[in-house]
Design goal:
The protein is α+β, with helices and mostly antiparallel strands and 313 residues long. The protein is built from 10 helices and 11 strands. Strand 1 and strand 2 form a beta hairpin. Helix 1 packs across helix 3, helix 2 crosses helix 3 and helix 9 packs antiparallel against helix 10.
């Protein structure tokens, strides 16, 4: 039977992973949006419904439709149908856990399925990154890559985009706090220095290399030691209330380490199992409940596959 409609889970992601600014990312399993894509008889790409957040409905302004249009441009044979997109947002825009990336990655994944999969998930990454251009000004791939591929990813090149899939530490869980304050990505990029000291650069690339090695060798100790950012975090953490206390309390509760998720304000921590991740959640709650800032704490295992199909009809 011909596939007419598909419902998918579009996952949240953590970009940067401390030392891997703009290159590393990982995919989350229990935080994400739901999207439904349907074939239409006209050949347009339209957004028919967005539930949960106020986001643009105009196809040229929404990351999901823009990503699909980028994909259609690259198609050798145009489909003889159009796409109707319905988005149920659970990931708050501006939270730092890849809200726009989830919509862009989910859209191209689902559209590709409806078209009979002319593209591999790797080939979909640049199209989803075009969606990101609408959200943040550049076709950045450090969230869309893990959303499409799952696990941990490293953006090796940006022009053209080349992404390396990395193995995950087995059983790893993330605990994330989203303090509901607004930090614009543009501001959190503007405050970064354009030049870095050689001393810090050496420490940083040692950590990136060690982090990748820790993932390959399932080495929790090396993973924990490598989750350090000498270049970006010292500047951005000043924008996030209680950042140092959250990381310290999480480590005291058993976390391997943590940092700023994407450009913030969310803070991520990693734990070796779900029980530790729950203890970390309690510790982080105890820090933030003393503030007057609304917040939300999530725990999730690492999603090894990326976007997931929920229903096909
Ligand atoms: N890596 C980006 C940043 C955010 O930290 O500014 C995610 O694309």
């Amino acid at each position: 039977m011909e596939l007419r409609e598909i419902e998918i889970f579009a996952p949240a992601t953590i970009a940067n992973i401390s030392c891997g600014f703009d290159v590393m990312g990982c995919c989350l399993d229990s935080i994400g949006d739901t999207m439904i894509l349907r074939k239409t008889s006209d050949k347009s790409v339209r957004i028919s419904k967005i539930v949960g957040e106020e986001l643009p409905m105009e196809p040229e302004k929404n990351v999901a439709s823009v990503a699909i249009m980028a994909m259609l441009k690259a198609c050798k044979v145009q489909p003889d149908f159009g796409f109707d997109i319905e988005i149920h947002k659970n990931i708050k825009p501006g939270s730092g856990i890849g809200s726009s990336a989830a919509s862009a990655a989910g859209a191209v994944f689902a559209a590709n399925e409806l078209m009979g999969k002319p593209f591999s998930n790797h080939e979909l990454i640049p199209f989803a990154a075009e969606g990101e251009r609408v959200a943040c000004g550049s076709p950045i791939a450090d969230n869309v890559a893990p959303a499409l591929l799952g696990g941990f990813t490293l953006v090796k090149e940006t022009d053209p985009i080349k992404v390396i899939e990395l193995p995950s530490i087995k059983g790893l869980y993330a605990t994330i706090i989203h303090p509901q304050i607004e930090i614009k990505t543009s501001l959190s990029r503007d405050i970064l220095p354009q030049n870095v000291s050689l001393k810090h650069a050496v420490k940083q690339w040692a950590n990136v290399g060690s982090l990748v090695h820790a993932l390959h060798t399932n080495d929790h100790t090396l993973f924990a030691e490598s989750l350090k950012d000498y270049i970006v975090e010292p500047h951005r953490s000043k924008l996030i209330p209680k950042f140092d206390e959250v990381i310290k309390s999480a480590i005291n509760a058993g976390a391997l380490g943590g940092g700023i998720s994407g450009s913030g304000p969310s803070i991520f921590t990693f734990s070796k199992d779900s029980k530790t991740a729950d203890n970390v959640s309690i510790a982080i709650n105890n820090i933030y409940k003393k503030t007057h800032i609304p917040y939300h704490v999530y725990t999730s295992k690492i999603n090894e596959t990326g976007v997931k199909i929920l229903k096909r009809s």
